[in-house]
Amino acid sequence: MRCTYRALGAGLISCVVSGHSLAATYPLDTDVLPSGVPLQFPSATVETPPLDWSDTLLGDVWGVRKWMNHYGLRLNIQDAEELWGVASGGRKQGASYDGATAISLTFDPTRLTGLKYGLFNISALQLRGRSATTDNIGAINPVSGYDSPRTTRLFELWYGQGFLGNRLDVRVGAMDLDTEFLVSQNASLFLNGSFGWPIAPSSNLYSGGPSWPYSTPGVRFRYNPIYPLTFMAAVSDDNPTGGPFFKPDDSPPGDLSGTHFNTSNGALIIFETQLLVDAGMLLNHSHHALPGTWKIGGFYDTASFPDPRYASNHLPLTAPGASASPLYHTGNWMLYGVFDQTFWRLEKDSPKAASFFIRVTGNDDIRNTLTLGTEAGLTFHGLIPARPDDVLGLAWGTAFYGHRARMAEQDSLRYTGQADSRTQAEQHLELTWQAPVTPYMMVQPDFQYFWNINSGSPDSETGHRIPNAAILGLNVTTTF
């Protein structure tokens, strides 16, 4: 199935489906990957995953996959292996390993029941290895999206149904919202975890919110009134592990199985509007396809959140007589914008192209420590001769502390004579090269540089500020 596009004017594009309506939102195989996602060449076409399995290591498995597809079943297995080495700086130099195996199974009931536009999805994860970020770097931003607690867990479990000729798609079940919301397609190329689910919501929400590798029960709506425009909204639980906001460092991370389906904390209500744009038409270069996706959105969380400066008796947290617990405020919110845009293409059918992404998040300083986050980067397709499918990327990201968090530092200096944190913005730069070795194997060498690590706070073990760190990495992702 292919979706071709025609001009609507003002740089907007409309989708014309050949043969039949778009199927109920079909999850891509890469939806279970948090980072280092294979980045396709920028195109205004929409395609379902291939059914010939030529881009998988095991192929048709002696006809098993063809037989499963006859009954509406589709199985996908992906494995990611990573090596990380801190070349200089950080908490200590050295190498570490992490890895993940993801298995997903979908069932389209059309073949057996005749029910159109329905889809059942279940997936699981096996996570292993050590945390290079915690052990060797000491940073706030995880060096990898796979830098997660070791476990074997249920990932997602949901049913989706299309209505109104499939212009409205509804999902119900346990979902990871960062596969659809707050996502930058170009940013997903990079390995640093903050280019997936940003560091601001990861730090400001309970358990980091419903983001990889966690899911929460909820319902998601996706509506296409016209195909350049998409409205999305979801309501889900806000605390995937069910733990407290402040978790002791030596305590377990909560629900590691993914089967507890916590609903006791608060509700996260998130919305997003997406617009497809062809910049080539805006620039009067209609023979050059320069596709882009512009998104604006936000969320509201109904739970209670701690004040970064004041205790429950309204004194500064470090002041004499302050209560041990912080002051809690009901509700929390965040707004965001995500812009993916191809801005250069050698010619219409050339494999050479360049794109950029910008993502900005913002929230208040009364309930949040980090109040402004931003990531930006460039991706280049086909710049290396004889390697048209390779992608080079350069990106930077950071998040800034709010006024109350900075004043809390001044309170600490005033009442205790020392600061718990210097509240400087930790920043990271990443240079990456994604190189397909075979249709089913992707090799991605990576370089990252961190400065103002852990906001300039002293290391808990040495008492000294953590030096800026240079990190080398290698990701190998295989699709079975």
Would you kindly provide a written description of the structure presented here, covering whatever features stand out?
The chain has 480 residues and is mostly beta strands. It has a single domain (3-479), classed as Porin (Beta Barrel). 9% of the residues lie in helices and 45% in strands. It is built from six helices and 18 strands. The strands form two sheets. Strands 3-4-5-6-7-8-9-10-11-12-13-14-15-16-17-18 form a 16-stranded antiparallel beta barrel. A two-stranded antiparallel ribbon has the order 1-2. A hairpin with a 4-residue loop joins strand 6 and strand 7 (168-175). The model is unreliable at 1-23 (pLDDT under 50).
What topology does this entry show?
Layout: E1 3-9, E2 12-17, H1 64-70, E3 73-88, E4 94-107, H2 110-113, E5 118-129, H3 132-137, E6 151-163, E7 168-175, H4 199-204, E8 216-226, E9 229-237, E10 267-278, H5 279-282, E11 291-311, E12 326-345, E13 353-362, E14 370-381, E15 391-401, H6 403-416, E16 427-438, E17 441-451, E18 469-479
Antiparallel strand pairs: 1-2, 3-4, 3-18, 4-5, 5-6, 6-7, 7-8, 8-9, 9-10, 10-11, 11-12, 12-13, 13-14, 14-15, 15-16, 16-17, 17-18
Which keywords apply here?
18 strands, globular, two-stranded antiparallel sheet, OprB_sf, signal, mainly beta, Carb-sel_porin_OprB, 480 residues, 16-stranded antiparallel barrel, Porin
Low-confidence stretches: 1-23
CATH fold annotation: Porin
CATH class group: Mainly Beta
Number of strands: 18
- CATH architecture annotation name: Beta Barrel
CATH superfamily: Carbohydrate-selective porin OprB
Helical segment count? 6
Coarse morphology? globular
Distance between the termini: 23 Å
| Main sheet overview | 16 strands, antiparallel, barrel
- Binned strand content: over 45%
SSE pattern: EEHEEHEHEEHEEEHEEEEEHEEE
> What's the number of domains?
1
Helix/strand-derived category reads mainly beta
Strand line-up across the major sheet = 3-4-5-6-7-8-9-10-11-12-13-14-15-16-17-18
Helical residue percent? Answer: under 10%
Mean pLDDT: 86
Radius of gyration: 23 Å
GO molecular function: porin activity
Organism: Acetobacter vaccinii
Keywords: Signal
Family: Belongs to the OprB family.
